[in-house]
Amino acid sequence: MKAVLATDLSAASEATIENETCLECLGRIGVDEMHLVTVIPSNVHAGMPGIDFEKRRRNAISNYERVIGDAGFDVETHVVRGTPHRRIRGIAETIGASLTVVGSRGKSPLENRVIGSTARNLARTTETPLLVNRIEREADDPAVVRQHLFQRMLYATDFSENAERAFETFSYLRHATQEATLVHVETPKDPGLAEDTDPEGRLAELADQLEAWDIETRIEVRQGDPADEILAVEDAVDPTTILVGSRGHSRLRRLLLGSVSEDLVARANGNVMLVPPRM
């Protein structure tokens, strides 16, 4: 299983790469080949006086390559030029990656939880499952917020086809997952389900599948704004990662995140894994 690990060589990226627990989690779900990617922005030119960005990046990324190799992965590095999210996405698609991992800071100085432009653009356009790995923001020596990436999962579903695809990732996440909380939020604005549908019964069926893999599972049906309610559950159960399909019901959102998914990526306390629809 191949994974792309995107880095801008910042202290936050270093925290993701050098955290042994994160690497162990990736190995546990079947990742054995890691592609380490850093992108030199198009507006940075090799001929700029006194600066050789490409050489500096190659020297820095070689240190990360050793860390990943020592952890037992086959590793390949890519130092490329262009628009970061487009080049990262292109490499993931070219190598047939099963997962893309990108680090993202937590709270902004304005107390508004945001993600960086690269993570946001990847979330909106990726055709590969994307793990937004949350990093401490206000720290000189930042650390990952949730070290055990897949130990306690919060899976949010609207029972759409894409939500079902997100659930399918438990087929490999289960090797690192011990607990799971399954959540559906009923909302009058977009009910999405037939009147005779039993959300609790459908969640119970999914829970039975996870229990068969020895994953301790609980279910919860809520009413209200989906993003708000899912984040309330996050506060209550403290998952290591929220798992969600990356687009909602609308067929017009083929290149955009559904509003719920975008809210979760921007506002969640911890990691968020987005699974895009089949293309």
Automatic annotation (TrEMBL):
InterPro entries: Rossmann-like_a/b/a_fold, Universal_stress_UspA, UspA. Transmembrane segments: none annotated. Residues 4-132, 150-276 form the UspA domain. PANTHER family: STRESS RESPONSE PROTEIN NHAX, UNIVERSAL STRESS PROTEIN UP12. Belongs to the universal stress protein A family. This is Universal stress protein. It comes from Natronococcus pandeyae.
